[in-house]
Structure formats: structure tokens, C-alpha cells
Amino acid sequence: MVDAKPVFQVLLHLLFLCLCSANGVQSFKEKKVLKLQEFRWRQHGGTRSTVCLSQKSRKEKGATILEIKHRDYCSGKIVDWNKKQQKRLIFDDLHVRSLQSQFKNRVSGRIKDVSEAQIPLTSGIRLQTLNYIVTVELGGRNMTVIVDTGSDLTWVQCQPCKLCYNQQEPLFNSSASPSYKSVLCNSSTCQALQFDTGNSGACGSNPTSCNYVVNYGDGSYTRGELGSDHLSLGATPVNNFVFGCGRNNKGLFGGASGLMGLGRSESVSVVSQTSALFGGVFSYCLPTTEATASGSLIMGGDASIYKNSTPISYTRMVPNPELSTFYFLNLTGISIGGVALQAQSFASGGILIDSGTVISRLAPSVYKAVKAEFLKQFSGYPPAPGFSILDTCFNLSAYQEVSIPTLKFHFEGNAELNVDVTGIFYLVKTDASQICLALASLLYEDEISIIGNYQQKNQRVIYNTKDSKLGFAEESCSFI
């Protein structure tokens, strides 16, 4: 009888030889299949509804679950999709520049007061990049607002309005709500505005009211007075919720009624104002842009209601006293196709995670390493010109599907963000003749890196402000 052991060893040896080359041993790379026809359809999204109100909600195991959708649902039908995609990158670049400027101003102590506020010369563009919306009830009226973890003050457009952009729903009418109250200018809430928004509260023409100004630095702004009213997050009531009643607002906000601030402030953000109800915990799963896709914003921390397909991995939120209202994490590495990258900036500190930024921005040295390894593994495809902030592009119009390297962000505590296949490439043109790696480089090494929402799709991202930790788990987003 022939001994099977030596035969098995020979087969293993042959397999090892097959993995070798003149340059040394080559390991199998981790790949994901991107079906381009499906990707084109998802990005195009078909005809959008011109109505974005009345999204679904429910309450389950003490948590409130709101349906979350892409901002295009408030924009009507997209006539020129290619032009729309190109504009988004331009707007996103301006948004990031605004954030970087805001960071520098806060760190250097340069915070503008209301008396210093100037009307921006450029058109407002900030909310063109805040891509996801939910519907809440304020003062008995449905209000569709854009979800932003990089902002603290929640605000809606109010009548009478001195300057308002067009929105799908009627303007909020404070005089028609019996539960509406003005916030006094000498209150602690009004005094906290400088810390939370970078603009201190001030007494208006009515000495008892607290005026606010939020300038986003890139041309968008909202101005008005602080008020409080009854807020309903699905079936969960929040009494005396403080928000901005905007009388003068400018920016490309789509058809949304305003903005929901999910930042880390200790006074005016949704998270702080509902901490007694939800324990300072919220999470979201951001859907793709296909017509039927919808994700969920969950207020509350019962993990049994998540539909994650992988275990939740947690990393600590990094404290930053000078920028304490933002969410910072320690990025320890990035891997492409299972290959861990080496870059000096991984050890240099925090990276901001933001639902209002679309494309992730990396330090130049980190992006250079990512680009080099991606091109090494995704070789043989015809190149295409770069566009705007994206410089690693391909012409994939002749392909039905492609295998692309996996992309993972690694954080302190062995937490991982596995980027969905639809979050690795950005489709500039619908025929796939210009499709780019959906990452970009910051201008300077010392600027703050940002993880954008494009790389967060189909992930359950859990924000636990009470325990100062943030979790990731893969999830196929669905409100059901």
C-alpha cells in the first residue's frame, strides 16, 4: 500500500511553488467583485420622488428607529446625472476645506462673534455633501432634516422668513405651535452657543430672545433665534427640545427643512438633549443610492435590534479638548487586498469620522501608500483622467464586472471598518468610462484626516458617547 503522507507533502510543495515568482513569494490578495451594471444602476437611482416627508419610524426594545435615506430623495429627478456627480466632488472639496479652516480657527482661539459675522460672498454649498435625511415631528409638523455628526445645533427654516431657500415641506410656524417657547438671551443655553457652534448667542431686537448665527465657512449659513418645542423622534417624545428657528438661511440644502445636529456638545445637540432617554448612544446604517434603498438611524443602545452580519468591534473615541464636539478615532493602519500598509502618519493621532463628508481624506503620505498598493493589485485596466479631488481613475466601460482589492481601515483596539464594494469606487460617468478610487489626499501632512460617509455605506456605526467608544459592524442596510 502506498503511503499517502509523502504524496500529500509533494502536493503542498507544488502548491507553494505555484505561489512563488522571480520576485519572491506572492500571497493571495483579498478581492471583492463589483458588478458594473448593478453599480451603474445603483448610482443612477432612477426617478426620485419629489416628496421626502413621511418616512417610516418605529420603537423597539426602548430604542427609536428612524428610516434614513439618501438626500437625493429631496432633490426631485436628476436630469444630468454625470454633472450631478461631478458637482458633488466640487462641493465635497469645499466642505472639507471649510472643516479644516474651522479646525484651525478653533485651535488658534479665533472664534467669530455674532457682531463679527459677515454675509458670505460665495453661494452656500455645505449641505450638498450632507447626503442622508430623516423625518422627525417638531411642534406637530413633519420636518425632514439632514443628519450631520459634524454639527451640534439642530435647526429648521421658520416663518416669517427674511431669506429662505426652497424646501419640500411648509416652513415651520412657531406662532402656530402652542408648545413653542423662545430661549432667553441670558440663559445658560444661550451662553453655551459659543462653545457648541463657534458663535456666541446675543440678544436681538426683542431683548428676551437669543439670536444665533452658524457660519459654515464655505458660503452656507443659518441665522435666527433659539427656541424650544415638542420633538417626536418616531414614537418617542422629547419635551422642550432646543433648536434654531432659522429666519435667514442660505445654501444648497436640497428640499430638506433643515439639519439635525448629532455632534458631541454638552447642551444643544440631539445626543445631549436625549441622553436621559437613550443614554448618549445612537447608530446609523447608511444605504446605497439605489431607488429602493433605505437605512436606519437608531437612537438607543440595545444591540439586539441591530441586523449586523459581523460582530461589533469597538475603538475608543479620542479626546480633543480644542475640538471636543467632533468624533475622533485613532487610525492604526489601512490594508489593501489584505496587505497592511506602512505610513508614518498612522502613529500621529486622530482621524475624524463625519457623516457630512462624502469622500475620505487622508494625509498625503498615507494616501500615497494606499494609491501605490491599489495600483499594484488593480493592474491591467485602461486608465482614465483624474477628476477634481480624485486622481486614480480607470475606464471600465468594456467590463461587466471587475475584481477589486478589499479596503479596510484599522483602529485602536483591533476595530475594523470593512469598506463596502460600492464605497471603493466613485462612478464619475454613468457608462463607467471614468470611475475612480473613492479616496483623496489632503493638501498637507498636518491637516486632520476624515472618514467620509461614502466609505461608511452598509456598515452599522455605533456612537456611544457615554462610554466614549465607537463600533463598526457590517450590515446590509434596511429599515425593515
Shape: globular
**CATH fold node name of the largest domain:** Cathepsin D, subunit A, domain 1
What is the makeup of the main sheet?
A: 6 strands, mixed, barrel
**Fourth-tier CATH superfamily name of the largest domain:** Acid Proteases
Can you describe this structure?
- InterPro entries: Aspartic_peptidase_A1, Aspartic_peptidase_AS, CND41-like, PEPTIDASE_A1, Peptidase_aspartic_dom_sf, TAXi_C, TAXi_N.
- The active site is at 148, 354.
- This is Aspartyl protease family protein At5g10770.
- Keywords: Hydrolase, Protease, Signal.
- By secondary structure, the protein is an alpha+beta fold.
- The chain has two domains: 82-92 and 307-474, Cathepsin D, subunit A, domain 1, CATH 2.40.70; 117-277, Acid Proteases (Cathepsin D, subunit A, domain 1), CATH 2.40.70.
- The strands form six sheets. Strands 6-7-15-8-14-13 form a six-stranded mixed barrel. Strands 19, 20, 21, 26, 27 and 31 form a six-stranded mixed β-sheet that branches.
- Strand 28 (425-427) and strand 29 form a beta hairpin.
Features:
alpha+beta; globular; 480 residues; 17% helix; Peptidase_aspartic_dom_sf; hydrolase; Cathepsin D, subunit A, domain 1; signal; 33% strand; six-stranded mixed beta sheet; 33 strands; six-stranded mixed barrel
